[in-house]
């Protein structure tokens, strides 16, 4: 059974009260983003009776300054312009509904690829996730929270400390592994990261693990160096489990706005990123970055971080995200 579907089934089986609570938690986590985008939007449409060129110019500025991204903003504006031209008249009261539809459509394009990257845990070999991202984005914390949720779901989890360039990274990961109830494989600082990944997979296979999470160095140096390092890790893992890694998850800090776009470009150039985790959304008004990254890179957002607690790493749900932004 796909591991993603374990969480999905849990969500579907949740009662109405639990579903409301989950939506309320997400609403609170995205409060700053909602206030940032829709506070600006309310000011842009105040006192206007219809959607005209001036209003669309203001909407364009709102979206760009909310870190949706220029390319995605232009796409949204063009689609709204086409609807205005088709319908001949559109009042400002309809703009929120239309904007919601446009954002939903962009996120749905990413969601359509989602099932093909499900964490497909099967008997006989562990499912391997290689986690990448620069230092400071919450990569280690994301691994720890995900491990805790998987262990709670009854899965045997191994963590490989392949970020061997910082002793603090290894120590921090050990704390999270202990807290989560996962097994961590590590070597000394400065060891070959590929060697750590190899040892982790060998141990995981020998001990019947269900999931392996491989941490990697967060240095964003030159593209060639990054590519070579990640390629070496991938090749070594494939010697133990032929199709490993099954998923390459890029962790991005949502509060960095446009810097998150650049990091996504760097890592997608360096390796085949198959999913995203966007962290620290509770402390920023820049959550619009999810919309742009989903649209521009066509990579599904798998998880979002909306707080420091273990349970505040959430599986990304398009409908819940849009509901939180639009106050429903």
UniProtKB/TrEMBL annotation:
Task: Please name the SMART domains in this protein's record.
Answer: AAA, SRP54, SRP54_N
Q: What EC number(s) is this enzyme filed under?
A: 3.6.5.4
In the record, the note on similarity to other proteins reads:
Belongs to the GTP-binding SRP family. FtsY subfamily.
Give every SRP54-type proteins GTP-binding domain span.
Answer: 300-313
Supply the name of the protein.
Signal recognition particle receptor FtsY
| Gene3D superfamilies assigned | P-loop containing nucleotide triphosphate hydrolases, Signal recognition particle SRP54, nucleotide-binding domain
What keywords are annotated for this sequence in UniProt?
Cell cycle, Cell division, Cell membrane, Cytoplasm, GTP-binding, Hydrolase, Membrane, Nucleotide-binding, Receptor
Q: Which reaction does it catalyse?
A: GTP + H2O = GDP + phosphate + H(+)
Task: Supply the source organism for this entry.
Answer: Alistipes inops
CDD domains noted in UniProt:
FtsY (cd17874)
**Could you name the domain of life of the organism this protein comes from?**
Bacteria
What the entry lists under HAMAP family is as follows: FtsY
Q: What does this protein do?
A: Involved in targeting and insertion of nascent membrane proteins into the cytoplasmic membrane. Acts as a receptor for the complex formed by the signal recognition particle (SRP) and the ribosome-nascent chain (RNC).
How it assembles, according to the record, is: Part of the signal recognition particle protein translocation system, which is composed of SRP and FtsY.
| InterPro entries according to UniProt | AAA+_ATPase, P-loop_NTPase, Signal_recog_particl_SRP54_hlx, SR_rcpt_FtsY, SRP/SRP_N, SRP54_GTPase_dom, SRP54_N_sf
Q: Where does GTP bind?
A: 133-140, 215-219, 279-282
């Amino acid at each position: 059974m796909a591991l993603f579907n374990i969480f999905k089934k849990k969500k579907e089986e949740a009662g109405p009260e639990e579903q409301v609570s989950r939506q309320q938690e997400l609403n609170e986590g995205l409060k700053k983003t909602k206030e940032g985008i829709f506070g600006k939007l309310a000011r842009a449409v105040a006192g206007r009776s219809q959607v005209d060129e001036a209003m669309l110019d203001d909407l364009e500025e709102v979206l760009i300054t909310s870190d949706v991204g220029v390319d995605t903003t232009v796409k949204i504006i063009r689609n709204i312009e086409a609807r205005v031209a088709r319908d001949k008249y559109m009042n400002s009261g309809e703009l929120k509904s239309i904007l919601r539809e446009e954002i939903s459509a962009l996120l749905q394009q990413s969601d359509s690829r989602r099932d093909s990257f499900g964490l497909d845990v099967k008997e006989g070999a562990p499912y391997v996730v290689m986690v990448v991202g620069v230092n400071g984005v919450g990569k280690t914390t994301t691994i720890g929270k995900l491990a805790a949720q998987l262990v709670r779901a009854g899965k045997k989890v191994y963590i490989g400390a392949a970020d061997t360039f910082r002793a603090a990274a290894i120590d921090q990961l050990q704390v999270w592994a202990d807290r989560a109830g996962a097994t961590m494989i590590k070597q000394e600082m400065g060891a070959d990261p590929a060697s750590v990944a190899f040892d982790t997979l060998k141990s995981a296979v020998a001990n019947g693990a269900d999931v392996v999470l491989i941490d990697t160095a967060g240095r964003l140096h030159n593209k060639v160096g990054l590519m070579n390092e990640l390629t070496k890790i991938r090749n070594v893992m494939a010697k133990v489990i032929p199709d490993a890694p099954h998923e390459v998850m890029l962790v991005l800090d949502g509060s960095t706005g446009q810097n998150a776009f650049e990091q996504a470009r760097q890592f997608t150039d360096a390796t085949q990123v198959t999913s995203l985790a966007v962290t620290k959304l509770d402390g920023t008004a820049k959550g619009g970055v999810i919309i742009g990254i989903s649209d521009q890179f066509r990579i599904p957002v798998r998880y979002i971080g909306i707080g420091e607690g273990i349970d505040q790493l959430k599986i990304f749900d398009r409908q819940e995200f849009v509901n939180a932004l639009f106050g429903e």
